[in-house]
Amino acid sequence: MGEGTGDDNNIALIRGFFMSIAVLFKHRTSNSTLELALALQSDEFCKWNVLQAAHHAGFGLNWYNKFDCSGFPGYKPSYACGTGRDIKNARFYVFQMKKENADELVSDFAREILLHRRFETFLN
């Protein structure tokens, strides 16, 4: 398989992130509701299909606002390589999931992974 674009990779990463949190929520906590927050630059929310990934994993967008990193003492925005990054029109998004949603979605996610692995085995 060829490498995807940076955006394709980020879309896959965001989708996997939400699904991983859903699995963790189902198995590791007794809370009835989970909140998850992300800070994203201006166009990343749409460009990376974040809302679609969140909904696919059972999360709903609870609220969002302008991101102010002064609310996170010691935080310095940077790229994965460690280079500093300017914040331009960043927003802070908070998603919420109910425990009963996690139970149902994790079963669907497990089925999807098994089907994907079987398909990859078939191709090889």
Structure description:
The protein contains four helices and three strands; from the N terminus they run αβααββα. The protein has 124 residues and is an alpha+beta fold. It has a three-stranded antiparallel beta sheet. Helix 1 (6-28) packs parallel to helix 3 and helix 1 (6-28) crosses helix 4. The longest helix is centred in the C-terminal third of the chain and has 25 residues, at 99-123. The chain is globular. 15% of the residues are buried.
As laid out across the biggest beta sheet, the strand order is 1-3-2
How can the largest sheet be summarized? Answer: 3 strands, antiparallel
- Put simply, the count of helices is 4
Strand % is 15-25%
Question: Could you tell me the number of beta strands?
Answer: 3
How would you spell out the order of helices and strands? Answer: HEHHEEH
Rounded to the nearest angstrom, the distance between the terminal CA atoms is 11 Å
Give the overall form. globular
- Mean pLDDT, all residues: 79
- Secondary-structure-based class equals alpha+beta
Whole-angstrom Rg: 16 Å
Q: What helical percentage do the residues reach?
A: 40-55%
Give the uncertain stretches in residue-range form: 118-124
